[in-house]
Fold this protein.
Amino acid sequence: MEKHIELDISAGQTATADETGDYSVSWRDFVQLAKPGIIFSNSITAFGGFWVASGWSISWRLLIFTMIGTALVMASGCVLNNYLDRDMDTKMTRTKKRVLASGKISSQVVLIYGIILGVIGVSVLGLGANPLAALLGIVGLFFYVWIYTAWFKRTSVWSTFVGSFAGAMPPVIGYCAVHPELDKIALTLFGILFLWQPPHFWALGIRRMEEYRAAGFPLLPVVRGTYVTKISMIRYIVLLVPVSLLLTFFGYTGQIYLYVATALGLWWAFMSIKGFKAKDEELWAKKMFIFSINYLTIMFLVMVIDTVSRG
């Protein structure tokens, strides 16, 4: 369930294992395989979904099981993503130092590690939360690993769209752990994450376009160019604004969330429009990417703070 947030926890490393001859493996390497930055950002959305469903009447035991199970499922997806992308990662500057791409850890170990994380994560959701939360974890994991990573990511310009189905699962899992039904609020939370992901990832795609081209990924900016990508980004952001406001209209968040969501959404739309006149597209894409991360974090933190009590 990947949202594509860059995180390099091996900063300062200037050579691969092949170049240094150092193949010693530590627990940090296994943490890196799970992409902790992605897990952290997605956990915020899962926490937000849980809190919105609870309305300040929190079962802390249920929250702990939900967060651990969701984090483990996401970690499984990230590890298996590393396993499937190991050949492509060697072709990109951003990813070639990953422990699997550099040969520091064997692919068999990574595969087993990813499967174990997934089994434990789904089990925790099923036993600690409810069967629907576990089912959503399985569906998200399946979409991310097999539909997105193994299939569309390598073959179709629609890969980002398909990957968004998996990336939108964390807040829905959090919500359904409390309310085990796919109601209008669960679908709204899904819609927010689903619409957020393409412009977020395409901003990264424009920044790293030549790397994705060299690796052979048919990403939208690579196949259709930046103009078409900017048009597509605006479409998603414009739709995101009204969808994000539905939580207030349905009575689950208050006026603070309404104002913040409106302001952030409109500002992001304004930034995307400015991209058509950007002289430095990479700089513009970098700003869009950073803003998208801040947008999601602020939105879900305010969502938690301004959740309406229904106790």
